[in-house]
Amino acid sequence: MSRVVHVGAAQLGPISADESRADVVERLIALLRDGATIGCDLVVFPELALTTFFPRWYTDSFDGHDHYYEREMPGPQTQPLFDEAARLNVGFCLGYAELTPQGERFNAYLLVDKRGVAVGKYRKVHIPGHDSDEPWRPFQHLERRYFQESPEGFPVFRAFDGIVGMALCNDRRWSETYRVLGLQAAELILIGYNTPLHYAPDPDQNALQGFHNHLVMQAGAYQNGTWIVGVAKGGIEEGVESLSQTAIISPSGQIVAQTITSGDVLVSARCDLDLCSRYKDTLFDFARYRRPEAYRLITERKGAIAPPQRNKQGAS
Amino acid sequence: MSRVVHVGAAQLGPISADESRADVVERLIALLRDGATIGCDLVVFPELALTTFFPRWYTDSFDGHDHYYEREMPGPQTQPLFDEAARLNVGFCLGYAELTPQGERFNAYLLVDKRGVAVGKYRKVHIPGHDSDEPWRPFQHLERRYFQESPEGFPVFRAFDGIVGMALCNDRRWSETYRVLGLQAAELILIGYNTPLHYAPDPDQNALQGFHNHLVMQAGAYQNGTWIVGVAKGGIEEGVESLSQTAIISPSGQIVAQTITSGDVLVSARCDLDLCSRYKDTLFDFARYRRPEAYRLITERKGAIAPPQRNKQGAS
Lengths: 316, 316
What we know:
- Chain A is of the alpha/beta class and about 325 residues long.
- Chain A has 8 helices and 15 strands.
- Chain A has a single domain, classed as Nitrilase/N-carbamoyl-D-aminoacid amidohydrolase (4-Layer Sandwich).
- In chain A, the strands form 3 sheets. In chain A, strands 1, 2, 3, 4, 5, 6 and 15 form a 7-stranded mixed beta sheet that branches.
- Chain A starts with a strand and ends in a 16-residue tail after the last helix.
- Chains A and B meet through β7, α4, α5, α6 and α7 of A and β7, α4, α5, α6 and α7 of B.
């Protein structure tokens, strides 16, 4: 029995601050239909796919941004997307800002099956940027103000005939993200992102954004023998240009599909989940080759700690 | 004060089974001198740089391979390399098979300073391949027969005005290698390797050896903000072709020097260790952004474990 999942990576272009939720959902539905037309089983949308990337703005009270958060999912404005998925028999993965009844704010990613039923949810673990206004920046990256770190780690879900994990944006830069999912036998990792091209703390990295984006996902795919679907919200949004480069990456680390423009567009690949074993059962047979006793610092230590200074006499 | 270390990556071509230790040491000295001529502070040799890659052969008793191991370092045959390093005022890093007085067999890497004095030693943690004869393979990869796994993990050493870590061959494919070194603030990671182009368990990977080699080292460098020097023993050795592709990689993940042939050759780069902070203090500020509590599986679990099967009714 084949385990081919036809995955559509549904890149979004910019969403302006005044674009209504209804208008955005219409764009999502158009991409969902595009995926259905070519036979996709699953259409993956990016991080914060319902709104503009609002963490770029500082306001004294973060309540001022409450209209960017979803208090229920689906809610009245997003229900049509779920209905259309069920009608088309196509699953999807949707990124959005979540405001819980307890007042918690998470950067969330929801996996919905072909019946339009939520089957998995992920909340962002690695929150990048900063938490107070930094006016020296051309624009803010206040994710640490508007979102809290998820305490739930990286769960996996049985869906689409395989084992599916999720991650969001900055998570993809951390090798631990992929490894924790890999240790749960993940075969398909869905990653949505919003990545401004300008990195204020070190603009020398700006020109490398595209290189780094693919590098970390390709390494994560190869080192864990898993498919990865990285989906961007790209283009120039409210004056800030973000990386596109949506890509579907095989367990070999090879890119098998990618976008070449920065607007709303879907690219797809038929992902044979059985190919994961080519890596999981050979070079990356974790049970045979890993050495967890040598990895203790990874969980025992948070920040880097340099070894003691040597006596100058011993210097080379 | 600048912290530029001029590093030479001294790739070796094949070493035949009957090549004498004295002849090999002469080749190493020639490369050391080549590095000294252009002002290198440190010349990095590959894994098992004194012998042919003997784990490709099975013999009933592994004592039959004892002549490939060093019982002392330096010994009479390797002393000339240490003497020449001191004379030239150039450090080096040397890979060799170690047989301890207790009869332990390690795949070792020794860091020697400009005075010709050993300042750090690493023993391979991730031993790839297999431990018994597998005649179906065109050649063996019996590292797990001829070497034991080091219990010492990944230490770092203060040397060459920076913090230096080491790894060997298969270690470079594991993200944990880089992270454990990165958590000790490593700024320069030296990696020697012998990588046959033919991977018997899945020959579809053969054509990707070069891609994978650079991918894992570039990701490791970027994700930990460290320089990496990957040095091959390449070319066709005793009928087996191995990857060359020696490369020096910056903390940005960019390759700044690489070999384009497969013989004895040195390429070099002036590695400014202060550039590491461009990554270590920003995007990869571990103390600020890492989430060790979400990484527990990395040390708690060795092999991958899939989640329980869902009830079929719940399948998408």
